[in-house]
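Model the whole thing, not chain by chain.
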Amino acid sequence: MARTAVSRRLTWRAAELREVRGETSSAHSLIFEVPGWPGHLPGQHVDVRLTAEDGYSTERSYSIASAFTDHHDLVELTVQRIPDGEVSPYLVDVLQPGMRVELRGPVGGWFVWRPADTAPVLLVAGGSGVVPLMAMIRARAQASVRVPFRLVYSTRTPEDVLYADELRRRALEDRGLDVTIVYTRRVPDGHGRPPGRLTAADLAEWGWPPDFEPAVFVCGPTGFVEAAADLLIDAGHEPARIKTERFGGTDA
Amino acid sequence: MLDYVDGSSLAGPMRELFAVDVTAVEGRCAACGLTGPIAALHVYGHDHGPGLVGRCPGCDEIVLRLVRTPTDAWLDVRGAVSLRFSL
């Protein structure tokens, strides 16, 4: 249970965009300042609401990419532009530092990792499903815990990798963190594995064996999550230890 | 085929109504008896339409429906035998 989530009803807060970091040609990380932010656990998400001048408003859920630190009120979201989307093109292409949106959260108390948890962790990401898993990797580093983490990240091409530099750096510097990227369409030069969808062999080689009883977090488009969860269950992982988050769409 | 997302996506809309996070609450499906967190429901209607429908991941029957109007929220939980809140 999310006892850390403050027991009061959720309200919309003004969030000012402070900084934008380009991740790929279609995804930006947006760092918002949210005065009074109550803190969050990695894996939680927020709802973002946009309101037009005529009063029309629309909202979408985004996973939080950042780990919470209690000395600031910053929340980082990584938003992938969906070409015919209603909200993501605005967030990626129009919103500039200094502009505001409304945000409420954090919400969700199930797909979360807590630094006090001691089980080894297997993170399986499809496309932008890596976002909440990155929050877990960042929170692990910030809490200086040594719980072994493995990330298996499936994405189309080398140019589609979110947090590429940071993942490369953390794989070297964060002790006990292994990062494997599985490319489905095109691989970098010199990469041994041919392009293709995530397989049982990938998870056997780069994940944890079921008898380690890892906590497994799978996030991605619905089809990816179904396929990955089936592979994990077939390999002998206990379904109760596999937490999934599907965000619809087909981008991995 | 209609696409669905996880029950986790109900977290925001439900926290408008409840003081605790409902997605980690364990529910029992009235149709097949499966128990699991609300976060594991298959949720339809997130990208269109006036409401959200949560279906059982085991038998696909409707467990809950949430419809929001400008002034009210209607929550229909006819497909759940019980909801267990950890205190």
